[in-house]
């Protein structure tokens, strides 16, 4: 929430606020995929990985906003998520476990 201005209301302590859209988080997998429209008009995520022998991966996925399948795919290429991503994920798991107990 962002405080925009002090209202012209007689009560000088009342603040007017507006909701702001949170910044979109960009997944690490987009370093290895590109979004393009397919021949039939569908938005797809195309893997850009190039193997040691120079062959480009041809795998693509329907783009639905989720990156779960994309991250699973790049792991098959031997690519692992950045450390901060793993730490953040582990903290979420620990926090969820603490809520249960």
UniProtKB/TrEMBL annotation:
Domain of life: Eukaryota
Protein name from the UniProt record: BED-type domain-containing protein
Organism: Rhizophagus irregularis
């Amino acid at each position: 929430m962002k405080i925009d201005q002090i209202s012209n209301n007689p009560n000088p302590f009342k603040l007017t606020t507006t909701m702001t859209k949170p910044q979109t988080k960009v997944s690490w997998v987009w370093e290895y995929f590109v979004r393009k429209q397919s021949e039939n008009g569908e938005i797809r995520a195309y893997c850009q990985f190039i193997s040691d022998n120079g062959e480009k991966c041809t795998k693509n996925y329907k783009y639905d906003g989720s990156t779960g399948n994309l991250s699973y795919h790049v792991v098959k290429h031997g690519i692992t998520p950045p450390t901060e991503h793993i730490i953040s994920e582990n903290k979420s798991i620990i926090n969820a476990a603490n809520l249960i107990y």
